[in-house]
Write a structure and sequence with these properties.
Rossmann fold; elongated; Transcription Regulator spoIIAA; 3 domains; 18 strands
Length: 383
């Protein structure tokens, strides 16, 4: 592992199409738009067009379809100080967040491609997702340490995308010690994150804003949280709803959810281990009614080959909204129920799913105007 500067003499030449992509604001250049490349080790390279005009510096991944990820259009040294300054700037921009666990760096969205940096109280968990940034690991780690001064830094490099970069999957400490479980807080709700073994880097931090948003609009009656995992949505709903039913197929995940509820003194959540689709059909047969329903299913389409199955599963999850308002209740004068869906199947567009983003298959369920189809820090949900 090295820093990046020792390989900056290497150069990649791109086509006019590749140059135009960067000039238009896209952060990537693909393999097919590369005219000449060193084809050896990954790292940081300078990029020019075929006339020799300097276009910038980029992370270079010789085994990836995404060959170049733009770092800067300048010629400045990209060393530990460079990374530290930019990470510190991103952290300063998030200083007002009312949480002790949140994302500090969101890769391309923060101009630091293939780098994810999450804070969990005094600890930091990072992911290096390309061969180019892996080659600059020492400088990146030093930059994180200087900018954030964490007690410990863990690298959760166990993401499948690293295989496409020719990189191993691993979970390794960079320095210090990060515990198995960390107690954190967001918007007054405490929960236990699992940096070493939990989903993502330890928790679904990309849903932080949406959890608070849905809770603000939740009805005062019954709430249903499908695909609840550790109950992050259920915990927020429980402060407003009379009762919450949290459903997940994993008993282990629900046990952690119950533990989280105990941290907050919440006793109005029922934790139910079940297949969400099967339970929805059961609730529908019994004409169960809920004021609020949240669906946050796993990714249904991780590859193009899985799209047909994903479309069927997505439509099944969308149809679950009708649990909020079964036929027997459609003539009720009561306010229409609130529904929220979050999908991380980016290959299935809203039109392919059969329902517009934020739309509902139920004639009475509604999405309040304040809840929008996307969030600047939450690229996944469509609410």
């Amino acid at each position: 592992m090295t820093g990046g500067q020792d390989i900056l003499t290497r150069q990649v030449v791109v086509s006019a199409k590749g140059a135009a992509r960067w000039q238009a604001g896209h952060p990537w250049i693909y393999r097919t738009d590369v005219y000449d490349e060193p084809r050896d080790i990954a790292g940081i390279v300078s990029v020019t067009d075929r006339r020799g005009r300097h276009l910038g510096q980029a992370l270079y991944s010789p085994k990836s379809e995404i060959r170049l990820r733009l770092l800067t259009r300048g010629r400045e040294p990209i060393d530990a100080g460079w990374w530290g300054e930019r990470i510190a700037a991103r952290a300063a921009g998030r200083a007002g967040i009312k949480a002790t666990a949140y994302r500090i760096v969101h890769a391309e969205g923060d101009g630091l491609p293939s780098l994810v940096v999450d804070r969990y109280g005094p600890y930091v968990v990072a992911q290096l997702l390309s061969a180019g940034i892996e080659q600059a690991r020492d400088d990146v780690v030093a930059g994180i340490r200087t900018a954030l001064t964490p007690t410990g830094l863990l690298l959760r490099n166990d993401v499948g995308i690293r295989r496409h970069e020719g990189l191993p999957l691993e979970v390794v400490p960079a320095f210090g010690t990060v515990p198995e479980v960390v107690a954190v807080e967001e918007d007054g709700i405490r929960y236990l994150a699992a940096p070493r073994a939990g989903q993502k880097t330890g928790a679904f931090l990309d849903q932080r804003e949406n959890r608070a948003l849905v809770a603000r609009h939740a009805g005062p009656g019954r709430a249903l949280d499908l695909f609840a995992y550790h109950g992050s949505f259920a915990l927020h709903l429980a402060r407003r709803a009379a009762t919450v039913t949290a459903v997940d197929s994993s008993g282990e995940a629900l046990a952690r959810g119950a533990e989280n509820a105990g941290l907050n003194g919440l006793t109005n959540i029922t934790w139910r281990e079940a297949n969400a689709f099967d339970l929805v059909r059961e609730l529908e047969r019994r004409d169960e009614i809920f004021d609020t329903i949240v669906l946050d299913p796993p990714a249904f389409a991780k590859t193009k080959q899985s799209i047909p199955r994903a479309l069927a599963d997505t439509r099944r999850s969308i149809s679950a909204r009708c649990v909020c308002c079964p036929p027997a209740a459609c003539s009720s004068p009561a306010p229409a129920p609130i529904t929220s869906t979050a999908r991380c199947s980016r290959r299935c567009s809203p039109t392919r799913r059969g329902t517009p983003a934020g739309g509902s298959s139920c004639s009475r369920s509604r999405v309040p105007d304040a809840i929008t189809p996307s969030s600047s820090t939450s690229p996944r949900p469509a609410i």
